[in-house]
Amino acid sequence: MKNTQTDALVIGTGPVGLFQVFQLGLQGIHAHVVDVLDQPGGQCIELYPDKPIYDIPGLPYSTGRELTQRLLQQVAPFKPTFHFNQQVSQISHQDDGRWLVTTPNQQFSTRTLFIAAGVGAFVPKELKVDGLAAFTGTQLFYRLTSPELLAGQHVVVVGGEDTAIQNTIALTSGPQQASSVTLVHRRDVLHASPDALAQFAELRANGLIQFVAGQITGIQTSGDRLSGVEVNTPEDQTLNLPLDALLVCQGISPKLGPIAQWGLAMERKQLTVDPATLATSAPGIYAVGDVNSYPGKKKLILCGFHEATLAAYAAASYIDPQASGVLQYTTSSALLQQRLGVQSNAASATSD
Question: Distance between CA atoms of 155 and 179, rounded to whole angstroms?
């Protein structure tokens, strides 16, 4: 298993996790970032990508998608290394003081660890139908991580929101084009961005997408293969839909998951931290955002930004106890502006 050495590992790519990467970058600390999802944004992208957010400082209005894009642009100068589709299963303290962090794909040996997991790891909501789970990973999928695997197949997609709509559209063209695509949702009302809905309607009108209103209540098999699903319609009819693959996009739900088994002090399923440093009960491990708890805690994105700042300063002192710790400002510090990849004001003044 691959082992990556790093000074900082951030778990979670929601807004607070991304801002944590930015604040670490200002401290000269490069970060690797792990997320169980297949894209950055966390809850903002998965639960409300196009809903308005009004309380981000300096942004009177922003959607979850726009906020994620702005944060990714902000962290770009620090070139963080992202590792998606990976859930941290366990952590252990090493003899050299580092933390060994393990996912199903690799291990990280890190000096500091930042848990920005929100209310937990987001996992797909399963489709509960007798006998269906046996086909998970072979014909039943909850994420379209490798679209080309479904190329040339008859695919049924389940769901009625943004992810389901986008995946259905994606399967109608390109190298991942399926032989047929049918979307199943409990009713003929879909929720996605206006552009996605317009594209979906056009493809449906042209016969490239089939739509069925109803709920899957049973499966059909042929030998050891899933061959179809049974759909109960609002008119109380049963339709049989043949398929090669079933893609379920019914949303996600947060689960605290393995974090509860890491031996860190907790209170009401949240990690307890020192509000001055955001340090947990273990040396070198910090928790920021909705995953933590301390007196006066408020579960707001802007509060998470504040926590990420304090955690970055604390981690810089932990990594290098001899560092001066002098507060520097991006408006005037040549060092910070160099790290950000911009020409410093001091240099400009000298050249003038």
Answer: 8
Instruction: Please check whether residue 17 is in contact with residue 122, taking contact to mean a CB–CB distance below 8 angstroms.
Output: no
Q: Are 277 and 112 in contact (CB under 8 A)?
A: no
Whose CA is closest to 12, among 86, 103, 109? 86
DSSP 8-state class, residue 175: G
Return the amino acid letter for 265. A
pTM over 0.90: no
162, 167, 169, 170 alpha-carbon torsion, rounded to 10°: 140
Strands 31-34 and 2-11: parallel
Is the separation of the CB atoms in 113 and 319 below 8 Å? no
DSSP helix/strand/coil, 25: helix
Residue 350 has pLDDT above 50, yes or no: no
Please give the Cα distance from 75 to 21 (Å, whole number): 7
Q: How far apart are CA 15 and CA 20, in angstroms?
A: 9
186's tokens: 């409990």
Ramachandran angles phi, psi of 145, nearest 5°: -80, -30
pLDDT at residue 16 above 60?
yes
All structural domains of the chain, each given as residue ranges with its CATH number in brackets, are 2-122+253-321 (3.50.50.60), 126-250 (3.50.50.60)
Whether 158 contacts 167, CB under 8 Å: no
Whether the predicted pLDDT of 122 surpasses 70:
no
C-alpha closest to that of 124 among 83, 73, 161: 161
Structure tokens at 275: 């509000």
